[in-house]
Amino acid sequence: MFSGLSAFPITPVNAAGIDENAFLRLLKRLTRAKVDSLGVLGSTGSYAWFTREQRRRITELAVAHAEGIPVMVSIGAFSTDEVLRLAEDAQQAGASALLLPALAYQGLTQEEVYGLYHDVAHAVSRPICVYDNPRTTHTQFSDALYARIATLPNIASFKIPGVPEPLPAAQQRIAALREQLPAHIRLGISGDQFAATALQAGCDLWYSVCAGLFPYAAKALYEAVKGESSQSAAAQTQRLEPLWALFRKHNGSLRVMAAAAHLLGDTDAVCLPRPLRMLTDADTAEVQRVITELGLT
Amino acid sequence: MFSGLSAFPITPVNAAGIDENAFLRLLKRLTRAKVDSLGVLGSTGSYAWFTREQRRRITELAVAHAEGIPVMVSIGAFSTDEVLRLAEDAQQAGASALLLPALAYQGLTQEEVYGLYHDVAHAVSRPICVYDNPRTTHTQFSDALYARIATLPNIASFKIPGVPEPLPAAQQRIAALREQLPAHIRLGISGDQFAATALQAGCDLWYSVCAGLFPYAAKALYEAVKGESSQSAAAQTQRLEPLWALFRKHNGSLRVMAAAAHLLGDTDAVCLPRPLRMLTDADTAEVQRVITELGLT
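^ Those are the sequences you sent over. The predicted structure of the assembly is below.
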């Protein structure tokens, strides 16, 4: 589960709720491309907007159509009690791993964040990936907190939100993290534009949003890194810069990926859960232009 | 509903879930003090940590024991669909008004925030209070957005997160807001330490956390302002400064009010939903010292 390229698809909706057929079309792209794992109901998979019942259904669908590829599922919620219920649901539905953010409403102390991971880690029977993304969860992890959480049972991976650039700074950062964490912990990079640098700097895997719709482009980048051609990896990242620029422009990747999924014909014109809105016509036209120029259509 | 002193109690839990007896003890303090309205399941009421079923049950309990005092209930959730379900529940349970935050996960555009209020305002049959609190919801309202939302049906009040000080700056701010909003909109101040200044500057009511446990102290402050003795109002605010200092120290009022509710004998020693934690023994002792010195016990 915790190596290679992990693809995070969106979860499309339509007027009736979850658009299951559209979701299966998106999954098909990923199983055909043989990504190494699926990250379902991540931030990009809109977990925060769905009910417990919807999340269970999406997990069941993903596992049933994953063609043997391991599925990781977010169990994030404000309340520890709800997280534990979601973990039980995910395990019963066949998830291979659990993605756990520390979602803050009032701001959590480091002790409260540790307590969340402690309580969940001792209750589950699947490996946990610690989801560190202050932009969405509003929780900051210190390195000391990483180290404490890493000693808990079932903690297998950290999904980190980026690395400093250029490469030597990233290498220093990853080395410093490794020093504080047990050897079995797998470090995964999130934030697609940092992926090449982070993988070259020693991250074990890539938790990728763009792979959730464009798995071949993501594989090309991943393989350029693993082929140990840093020139080629940098060129791949540079090539995709217009896509990263769209992510930055639209406050994250979600609205851009939803627009792209519709442009590729996989979803309805409105496929994001309210109150999220689809991009304007002008912005959608820009997404069309970028993915066409990048050969992603 | 939208005048005077609106008291926001905590919603205590115990090992079994909602601690209904403790909640009723807290309510009794407020009905005995004859506060003007109750704000149930606000941020301080931990709405974000409870399930839909728990929120319905708390609303029913509050309405049944409010002794005729109007009850406002938060219907906040990430998803508009869930907000609409919660609104329907709250209305059926007898809530007099609905408190609606724009809870952001990925960050909401101004258009998305407007869309949320639009969709809910057109679906409900009770007045809505717009909850503006960037610290918990991570949504920023512009004045232009206030003005647009205020034109929607059922929008009755804005709960604003503070005012600039000193008084002339606050007066200028409230006057500027009034100019942009229809005359029927009631402005309520949140953030207890700003209450005296904001009420003197022309706010219509006080949405008060400290009134949720110490209604007589809050009434004394409110009445000092309404008696138009700005000296006396300033003295009341200054008197309570050690309490405001605790709110600032502990990242908001919730953990302090939970500690105080236990110290007053109304709740179990652990009365906050996980992953929230009760204050340490040393911090709890400080809360005890402050409320004793202020005569709040």
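Chain A is about 45% helix and 15% strand. The mean pLDDT of chain A is 96.

Shout if you want it in another format.
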